[in-house]
């Protein structure tokens, strides 16, 4: 039976619970994975594996949207985090911006790790079945199957029944339940309080201690050769005593490397040089900086040499790969945004759009149509693909210009019509867009068109209170309502739950 790397588990989930800001670094040989957290929110992941770079992931997952690639990379890298040989926490002088689905990445990465490990899943099941869990608040998720799963966790329940009824793969369902339990998002019946106290510090290494001990007695077999990527062999360095000349050389190299602004400067080469030039420069620096050369000089000197050697090796790894080198040249030499940066910029724009739209909704509810219009415009500008943002921007454009600038008012009306047409083929229908179209037609005196639009909204969502009020108004049952005022089809604000407070997200 496999044991779980609880160090990675603990680091990841403790970071989320304590809202910490740092980097989780995972290593297996020369392979490295980095997880950047800001106040408990996963904002960026990195890896030096070719198969996990953006272009490779796009090629292997052609159906995944470009905007979803960073989230998929995060899930892939969480899985590798469980399998890493070394895990450490590091501080960072830079604070990257962005937002990744922190818990989705963990749950799906954990589930991938559990897949095929029947013993591990069974251990989780045996512990969870002894509880009668009651979900405190649902886990926000971008994944529909997890959303549906969490929505079923109401009242007291037997977790295996829920999982089987959902048709969710065991490894995914149990990974989600275990994560919720670990983050203390379950309440438990009084009869199970004693069990709960035993599980508050629950980790699978404790549960599997006896099995792991048995595994330690087994003679290890040779590990299989990993052919995931070609790695450059490290130069063989003869260990010798440290000298004043070596120390002076180390000081000079440290100053050079730490003041270099890019990989080319670190190796002392040009971006027009060849791979052979990069390799020669790397080996020359390696002979001077390999940590083994400073084994007799004390921990401080060894640490300095190790840090410098890592920078040199990273520079060589990037520049010796044709694809990665070209990407690096585009960014460093020509100032282009990297794929990850471009994706991050897009995510940030979508985040700004959502925040602007929420503010616009609130002002719209208060009857402040003019101010709401400015925020709807900002939301639409930052995320022009959102049909909902476009519909509200179109409606307030119509209201703001009706009677004073009929051409612009008509443009606003056409925007709403475009949304309703574009929404026809989508699985989720925007009842709100039809309500706004009905309001606009009523303002233009087209009662028949208004009635058809409102009827369409109610067909999509019979409980839409704005559509119900508008229908009454059209039938003459609610006269005297203000144009575009309070209640003008603004959605009810959702109460922020645990996850929104934790991550500051939607």
Radius of gyration: 29 Å
The order of strands across the largest sheet is 3-2-1-4
Gap between N and C termini, in Å? 40 Å
- Tell me, rounded to a whole number, the average pLDDT: 76
Percent of residues in helices:
55-70%
Tell me the fraction of residues in β-strands, as a range: 5-15%
Number of strands: 6
Which structural class is indicated by helix and strand composition?
Answer: alpha+beta
Shape: globular
Domain tally = 3
Largest sheet: 4 strands, antiparallel
Write down the secondary-structure element order. HEEEHHEHHEHHHEHHHHHHHHHHHHHHHH
Q: How many separate helices? A: 24
Low-confidence stretches: 192-234, 236-240, 479-506
Description:
Helix 18 (369-382) runs antiparallel to helix 19 (387-401). This protein is of the alpha+beta class and 506 residues long. The chain has helices spanning 6-18, 54-60, 69-83, 102-114, 118-128, 144-151, 159-166, 170-182, 193-199, 204-207, 209-216, 244-259, 263-267, 275-289, 299-319, 322-332, 339-365, 369-382, 387-401, 406-422, 431-443, 447-460, 465-474, 498-503; strands spanning 22-28, 31-38, 41-47, 86-90, 133-135, 186-188. It folds into 3 domains: 1-215, no CATH class; 244-332, DnaJ domain (Helix Hairpins); 342-492, Alpha Horseshoe (Serine Threonine Protein Phosphatase 5, Tetratricopeptide repeat). The protein is globular and about 95 Å long. A hairpin with a 2-residue loop joins strand 2 (31-38) and strand 3 (41-47).
């Amino acid at each position: 039976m496999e044991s779980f790397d609880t160090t990675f588990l603990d680091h990841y989930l403790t970071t989320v619970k304590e809202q910490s800001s740092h980097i989780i670094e995972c290593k297996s040989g020369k392979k490295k994975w980095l997880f950047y957290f800001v106040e408990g929110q996963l904002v960026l992941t990195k890896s030096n594996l070719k198969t996990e770079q953006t272009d490779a992931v796009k090629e292997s997952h052609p159906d995944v949207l470009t905007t979803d690639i960073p989230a998929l990379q995060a899930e892939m890298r969480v899985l590798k985090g469980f399998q890493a040989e070394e895990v450490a926490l590091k501080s960072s002088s830079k604070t990257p911006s962005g937002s990744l689905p922190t818990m989705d990445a963990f749950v799906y990465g954990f589930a991938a790790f559990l897949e095929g490990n029947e013993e591990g899943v069974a251990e989780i099941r045996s512990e969870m079945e002894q509880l009668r869990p009651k979900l405190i608040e649902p886990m926000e998720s971008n994944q529909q199957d997890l959303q549906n799963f969490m929505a079923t966790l109401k009242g007291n329940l037997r977790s295996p029944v829920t999982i089987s009824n959902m048709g969710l793969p065991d490894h995914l369902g149990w990974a989600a339940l275990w994560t919720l339990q670990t983050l203390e998002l379950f309440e438990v019946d009084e009869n199970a309080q004693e069990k709960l106290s035993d599980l508050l510090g629950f980790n699978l290494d404790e549960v599997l201690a006896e099995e792991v001990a048995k595994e330690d007695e087994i003679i290890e077999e040779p590990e299989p050769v990993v052919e995931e990527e070609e790695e450059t062999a490290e130069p063989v360095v003869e260990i010798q005593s440290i000298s004043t000349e070596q120390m002076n050389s180390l000081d000079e190299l440290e100053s050079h490397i730490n003041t270099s602004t890019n990989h080319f400067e670190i190796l002392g080469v040009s971006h027009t040089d060849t791979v052979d030039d990069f390799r020669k420069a790397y080996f020359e620096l390696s002979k001077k900086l390999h940590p083994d050369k400073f084994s007799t000089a004390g921990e401080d000197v060894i640490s300095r040499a190790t840090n410098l050697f890592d920078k040199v090796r990273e520079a060589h790894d990037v520049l010796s790969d044709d694809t990665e080198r070209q990407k690096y040249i585009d960014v460093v030499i020509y100032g282009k945004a990297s794929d990850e940066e471009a994706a991050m910029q897009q995510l940030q724009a979508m985040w700004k759009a959502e925040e602007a739209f929420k503010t616009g909704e609130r002002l719209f509810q208060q009857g402040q149509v003019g101010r709401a219009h400015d925020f709807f415009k900002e939301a639409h500008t930052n995320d022009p693909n959102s049909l909902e943002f476009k519909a509200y921007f179109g409606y307030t454009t119509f209201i703001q210009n009706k009677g004073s600038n009929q051409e612009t008012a008509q443009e606003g009306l056409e925007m709403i019509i475009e949304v309703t047409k574009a929404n026809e083929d989508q699985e989720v229908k925007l009842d709100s867009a039809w309500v706004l179209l009905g309001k606009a037609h009523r303002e233009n005196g087209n009662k028949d068109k208004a009635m058809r639009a409102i009827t369409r909204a109610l067909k999509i969502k019979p409980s839409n209170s704005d559509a119900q009020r508008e229908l009454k108004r059209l039938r003459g049952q609610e006269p005297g309502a203000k144009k575009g005022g309070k209640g003008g089809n603004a959605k009810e604000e959702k109460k922020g739950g645990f996850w929104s407070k934790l991550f500051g997200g939607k």
